[in-house]
Amino acid sequence: MVYGTPLTVPGEFLPNTKSDPDVKRYLAELRDNIGQLRPVLMSIHGTLRSSVPNDLHTANFVFVRRDTRQRPLQSPYNGLYQIIHPGDKTFQLLIDGRQDSLH
After folding, report:
1. pLDDT digits (tens, 9 = 90+) for 17-48
2. Most C-beta atoms within 10 A of its C-beta, which of 11, 45, 59, 81?
3. Would you state the pLDDT for residue 58?
4. Its domain of life (predicted)?
5. Which residues contact 61 (CB under 8 A, 6 or more apart)?
6. Is residue 66 a contact partner of residue 76, using CB atoms and an 8 Å limit?
7. What's the per-residue H, E or C state across 1-55?
8. Phi, psi of 48 (to 5 degrees)
């Protein structure tokens, strides 16, 4: 819209096209294209890969990581805990004088 020109209705901004699109052909092509689509394999977010260092099975003491929100300058690890019994997936630790299982 320019000063001094007559007002224009939004429908008048675009030129009026008189050509009729072939709706049936368009719908047929659309159906064919949609029919050829195949589902995409979903990624599995629930499986966690863990790696255990080889030295962990021979270590006598470990630090345990905290998975909580931390304040500035706060260590992300707790203690220096003694390993009582190492396992494949769980470890028996001596935490504050009591035996605790850690996964």
Report:
1. 666 678 888 889 999 999 999 988 887 777 77
2. 81
3. 87
4. Eukaryota
5. 80, 81, 82, 83
6. yes
7. CCCCCCCCCHHHCCCCCCCCCCHHHHHHHHHHHHHCCCCCCCCCCCCCCCCCCHH
8. -110, 135
Tokens coding 34: 């949609």
Tokens of 102: 């850690």
* Cross-strand bridge partners of residue 93: 83, 100
If you average pLDDT over every residue of the chain, what do you get?
Answer: 83
What the block records as the tokens of 57 is 């099975």
Single-letter amino acid, residue 56: L
With tokens 């709706």, the residue in question is: 23
Structure tokens at 4: 């001094």
Residue carrying the six token digits 């255990």 = 52
Give the angle subtended at the CA of 30 by the CAs of 26 and 32, to the nearest 5°.
Answer: 120
Place of tokens 């001596």: 94
